[in-house]
Amino acid sequence: MTEGIRARGPRSSSVNSVPLILDIEDFKGDFSFDALFGNLVNDLLPSFLDEEADSGDGHGNIAGVDGLTNGHLRGQSAPLSSAPFFPEVDGLLSLFKDACKELVDLRKQVDGRLNTLKKEVSTQDSKHRKTLTEIEKVVDGLFESFARLDGRISSVGQTAAKIGDHLQSADAQRETASQTIDLIKYLMEFNGSPGDLMELSALFSDDSRVAEAASIAQKLRSFAEEDIGRQGASAAAGNATPGRGLEVAVANLQDYCNELENRLLSRFDAASQRRDLSTMSECAKILSQFNRGTSAMQHYVATRPMFIDVEVMNSDIRLVLGDHGSQPSPSNVARGLSALFKEITDTVRKEAATITAVFPTPNEVMAILVQRVLEQRVTGILDKILAKPSLMSPPPVQEGGLLLYLRMLAVAYERTQELAKDLRAVGCGDLDVEDLTESLFSSHKDEYPEHERASLKQLYQAKMEELRAESQQVSESSGTIGRSKGASISSSLQQISVTVVTDFVRWNEEAITRCTLFSSQPATLAANVKAIFTCLLDQVSVYITEGLERARDSLSEAAALRERFVLGRRVAAAAASAAEAAAAAGESSFKSFMVAVQRCGSSVAIVQQYFANSISRLLLPVDGAHAASCEEMSTALSKAEAAAYKGLQQCIETVMAEVDRLLSSEQKSTDYRSPDDGIASDHRPTNACIRVVAYLSRVLESAFTALEGLNKQAFLTELGNRLEKLLLTHWQKFTFNPSGGLRLKRDLNEYVGFVKSFGAPSVDEKFELLGIIANVFIVAPDSLPTLFEGSPSIRKDAQRFIQLREDYKSAKLATKLSSLWPSLS
């Protein structure tokens, strides 16, 4: 409603002249109370509307009641008069009362109509429910009818299926019966005269129907053989019935199949010559009915040029081994095998394309082809390059020795493994090409550890012979020389060489590489590695031990020369040159032994480093293998350690002997008891001291370089202790006056300064005590008792030195000291 609710009928100024008439239709749709109210009062409030219109546009209030604010009109002010302020109020009240009555009547009308509609709806709902119930009954009946219809359709379908199965079975039986009749007819033809194939049906001689003839012949053959088998079983059970069997048919069928197979193979060969792949494929499919086509597969593989052409085999040998009569090297063989195996792979790849296009089962043909390649072509070339040498009489080293065979074996094995991987990538069916490749080397791998150890032994022996030959050659070229000089030259020529030990390690490392290549299982690898490493330990142990023993022999020769000099001096009191020669031999042998010890240590370090870097990781996977090898290494090197220890003892004896000689020959009695004692003393060391310190500095320089760590400390400590004892013994041969005591103190300062370079605290302490004891020669006799008050431990040695004083008897020092130190008297 766009215009709201309008009162029905004419209106007059009198409020009660005409009743209000309201239409119920006015309340339908978009009902607005504001519109209803406005339509009711608009006729009674004309002056109000006029005043509001005069107040101007845009005030937005339309209803008359909106013009009042708190009971007053908005707009212009009302004139003051005595008339009623809102005279239309009575009319409005009457209007509102009549409107309320009308609304009540309308509500009653609406309520009545609603009740009527409720009754009608209830009646219609009952009818609708009744209709739905009837419809449901009808639908249930329809479902039952459909179910019965579906059951009948299913039954009819099953019956039709059974009928179809029976018809199919009957047709199959008919077909089988027809084929059986034909087969029986053909079988009777083959069961005629033995060897008579002339009276057979045209089917068996028609080249266009070869496939059908082959299929029928195979069926007949299977049936006849089964029949003969059943008759044999019946005869064994005692139920044999006399009658002619199918032996003739079997024999004739065998002959026919052989003839047909040969004919197909001939056709296959002819097509192969022409590269007629379609004909080859047709023949291969037919031949697959004969023993699953094995004969065709094998025939195809056997007729490949690389298996029947002698020139191919000769070309392989030339490619790998080079010209006839030349000694092949492993590197050349490796290159030749790589080229040959690449050619073989390319050939097999080409054949694979043909096989895939021709044969119905190409994987089986590829397996036969690859197996034939490995067993014939590869084995042929391996036999040429891998002639297994005898361990009883191995080839000489000049011709390569056992090492050449082992290197050839490693090269051939690596290249053949690569070939196997390439052939696997090309395709070889179900053939285990890796296992087949391993079998080609089984005889070589079974005896490989023995050959490897024998090769290492052969190399070691050859190296030792080479060193001995070099030593002998240099000795002969040196001419006639003195005995000591000759011993020195021989010792230097046979000195331990780190280069030789490095060669041992290099041989062993190469052997370990081959061992890793040939040993796939961790346990086998660990056992072989341990055995090969043991060879290295034995070689190094023997070599360095013999080197140390040779160096010890030089020390022994020098000692023997000194003994001869001593004996000669006692008899003849001469031979100064012999003494110098003995000293030179001793010094030379000392230095030679120190060089041997140094090289021995370097050699052992090389072996230990090699074990840590290369051997250890191969032994760790097997329990106990690593510990066992460490124990073997310790045992093997203990012999060298024992020889080194004995040699170092001899070195100390050599040094001490020369020091003793120098002291005995250079020390004068006047060095410590100068006749001119009152004159200013000589503050220089004695000549003997200078010679001894110079000798020790010169000879021990090699010891400082050769020895390290605890070995160096132990050697120098022992040497220092021996030097201290020797000096004590030597000085007890002389008598000292005060100036001689000062000279002795100067010698001691030289010795102390020298031994400090040893880095041995115990030796430094002993020499410091010697310096304190030497004071007994300097102080006055009355000061001797107080000299050792703080060092009671050296009083005994001090008493022996006091006895060497020049005034020992004249000053009656023995009596004085016995009263002061009664425990020493």
From TrEMBL:
GO biological process, one term: exocytosis
InterPro entries assigned to the protein according to its UniProt record, in alphabetical order: Sec10-like, Sec10_HB, Sec10_N
Key word Iron present: no
UniProtKB keywords: Coiled coil, Exocytosis, Transport
Record Pfam families: Sec10_HB (PF07393), Sec10_N (PF20667)
Domain of life: Eukaryota
Domain Exocyst complex component Sec10 N-terminal positions: 90-206
Domain (Exocyst complex component Sec10-like alpha-helical bundle) ranges: 212-816
One cellular component (GO) term of this entry: exocyst
Keyword Ion transport annotated: no
Family to which the UniProt record says this protein belongs: Belongs to the SEC10 family.
Name of this chain's protein: Exocyst complex component Sec10-like
Source organism: Arabidopsis thaliana x Arabidopsis arenosa
